[in-house]
Amino acid sequence: MTEQATKNPVIISTDPGIDDAVAIAIATSDEALDVKLISPISGNVSLEKTTLNTQKLLTFFHKPIRIVPGSHKPLLRPAKDASGVHGKTGMDGYPFPEITTKVDDSVTAATAMHEIVSTSDQPVTLMGIGPLTDIALFIHQYPDDLANIKEVVLMGGSLGRGNFGVLSEFNFATDPEAAKIVFTSGLTIRVAPMEIGRQAKIMPTTSEKIKTLGRVGDMFYKLFSKYRGGSFKKGLNMYDALAVALVLKPELFEQVKTHVEIETTGRYTAGASLIDLKGYLDMPDNATVAVNVDTDKFEKWFVEEIGKTMS
């Protein structure tokens, strides 16, 4: 078996966003993963901006990975954004080089996912680090492909209170109908909820280490200085990198099999993820959820992975 064949094929649905940028950098540089497709989606900022940011990143990292833009809005709801956290462009703070990567807009994101999954000789991992609209559309439109999905790995949902609504987290609550489709698909799902991102802070001393890692470190340090996911002085929340860590370093997490239910009809709670750790719903397990992370080991892994992006 060739080295390429041993890599885990991955499709990433993302809305960069600064923490998405870190996740993309790690996923596209680690030798264990073979990122086949990146589909930007409206989320942290508009689809136009997330697509442009994906192009900027792949140009910067010299990664010739296929980019197929996804949905410009949720399935049923108006678009929301998080530009207050990520800045007006989604990746403010760094002068990226002139873009050389191209965008393939000849097909939809769901169709591009189908093309890859249906022809892959290995089961494919779907990684959702933004709203789940395009993954849901893929699941709905191409049910025969699901047998060749290894797992769906997500950053989203919350164990308790939210950052979008009282009980809802941004990625899931932006398109709760899509999240519900994913969690009722029968696929193997692993989730890193919002609280784990708040545990896995990148502290100022770590940011200073990253700053020393050449042009890559300089780029991330400057992006971090504009990021409002936490505090540059008190620690930044690296939410989306957790999904990559779940694939590459699952031993960093305490994980629990449970049932996750997505609320879609509540007047005040639509988008809430009911992660049923105590079995109140009496429903079968449909996901494995990270409930803790070893923060010291995560921080060490994080710096090592950023260092790999220099090669």
UniProtKB/TrEMBL annotation:
GO annotation, biological process: purine nucleoside catabolic process
Cellular component annotations (GO), alphabetically ordered: cytosol
Gene3D superfamilies, per the entry: Ribonucleoside hydrolase-like
Residue ranges the record marks as coiled coil: none
Domain of life: Bacteria
Entries under InterPro entries matching the protein: Inosine/uridine_hydrolase_dom (IPR001910), IUNH (IPR023186), Ribo_hydro-like (IPR036452)
Single GO MF annotation: purine nucleosidase activity
Domain Inosine/uridine-preferring nucleoside hydrolase: from-to ranges: 10-299
Keyword entries, A-Z: Glycosidase, Hydrolase
PANTHER family named in the record: INOSINE-URIDINE PREFERRING NUCLEOSIDE HYDROLASE, NON-SPECIFIC RIBONUCLEOSIDE HYDROLASE RIHC
Protein name (database record): Ribonucleoside hydrolase RihC
Originating species: Lentilactobacillus rapi
